[in-house]
Each structure stands twice: as C-alpha cells, then as structure tokens.
Amino acid sequence: MLKVLRFAATAVLLFTAYFGDVIVFRSRYSNSLLFRAICDVLVHGSLGFFSSIIFFSIDNNYFSLEYDGTLHIVLCTFFSSIIDIDHVFVAKSIYLKDMVNLKHRGVFHCTTFWLALTALLLLYSYIKKRIEVYMFSFMIVLAYITHHLRDGTRRGIWLYPLGSTPPVDKKLYYFILGTFPHVSAMLFKRYKRYFNYPTLEDTFTV
C-alpha cells in the first residue's frame, strides 16, 4: 500500500510541478498579478505537501509518538509557501506591483541561509539526541529545496557569497524534484537510530 502511495505521490508531484507552471505563467489569466501570486504560492505549497507525503510513505512510523507525521506534513507545506514572504521585506511594500519588480532576492531565497540553518538544527538534534528536531530539519530541507529548485529554473540557485548559478535545466529540475524526497527519507531512516525517542512528557520540550 505504501509503495502505491509513494508512486502516486511522486507522479502527482511531477504533474503539479509541470502543469502548475503552465497555469501560473502561460494561462489566459497569467497577466493578472493577483492570479499569478496566489497560484504561485499554491504550487510551492503543493510541492512541499507531496514531497512530505513521499517522505512519510517511505518511513513506517507515521503515527509514532516520536514525530507526528500529519503535523510535519503541514509544517513542510507551510514553509514551502511562506518563503515568498521575504518579497514583502525586500519591496518594503504590500503591493504586488512592487513585490514583482525586485532588484534582488530576499534572504529566504538564499539557499546558503537555509543550509546553515538546517546544519545547525541537525547538529543540535545530534548533540541533544532529539528525534523531533531531527525530523523538523528534514521538513525544512524539503520545503526550501522544492521552492528554490522551482524558482531556480528561472533565476538560478542563490549561493551567497558565490552568487547565483545559471538557471536550472528543467529536466534536471524534474529529476531532482522526483528523487529528493526518496533520498531524504532513506537518509532519515539510516541515521535516526542514533537519536533518543522522547516520552509523552518531553515530546514538546526542546
């Protein structure tokens, strides 16, 4: 059953990635800034959602005390969508016409920032042996990788202080998008035995 779910979620993930961009950038309503903004956020959130579904279809402790799968799927979806909030900070405006004409990207679109953050979280989770922080780190990784990859097909990946890469090839984008959740889940399962499993009393303490 989980194999079927995994296959279906991967297919829907790639379908969403392709046709989501068609709807956002090549549909009859694409000239509307509001339409593009709403659909763009929905596509980013959907990529995070289906990536986390794939992740948990490989891990068989979805409803365990150590980490609630439903909660983490919601978190991954949320972070995948909310990254674009930095458009407001850079534009210093809440108007869409200002947010789509930025001269540079915000910090949440800097892959180096998220790499540093998740590296610190993973280090902390290892030192403290906290399985829930370890899981949370993977959800953030899935969120920003799916978001940055999709944006990267147009603007490249921003790796401060090195600058931005050339735009990501679409075929490479689909390949990484389709395989990354699987690889992440296998890495998570491989190393989670090094972490402690909390009791009910300390599940929500850090």
UniProtKB/TrEMBL annotation:
<dbReference type="GO" id="GO:0016020">
    <property type="term" value="C:membrane"/>
</dbReference>
<keyword id="KW-1133">Transmembrane helix</keyword>
<feature type="transmembrane region" description="Helical">
    <location>
        <begin position="70"/>
        <end position="95"/>
    </location>
</feature>
<feature type="transmembrane region" description="Helical">
    <location>
        <begin position="171"/>
        <end position="188"/>
    </location>
</feature>
<protein>
    <recommendedName>
        <fullName>Transmembrane protein 267</fullName>
    </recommendedName>
</protein>
<feature type="transmembrane region" description="Helical">
    <location>
        <begin position="6"/>
        <end position="25"/>
    </location>
</feature>
<dbReference type="Pfam" id="PF04307">
    <property type="entry name" value="YdjM"/>
</dbReference>
<feature type="transmembrane region" description="Helical">
    <location>
        <begin position="133"/>
        <end position="150"/>
    </location>
</feature>
<dbReference type="InterPro" id="IPR007404">
    <property type="entry name" value="YdjM-like"/>
</dbReference>
<keyword id="KW-0472">Membrane</keyword>
<dbReference type="InterPro" id="IPR026572">
    <property type="entry name" value="TMEM267"/>
</dbReference>
<feature type="transmembrane region" description="Helical">
    <location>
        <begin position="37"/>
        <end position="58"/>
    </location>
</feature>
<feature type="transmembrane region" description="Helical">
    <location>
        <begin position="107"/>
        <end position="127"/>
    </location>
</feature>
<keyword id="KW-0812">Transmembrane</keyword>
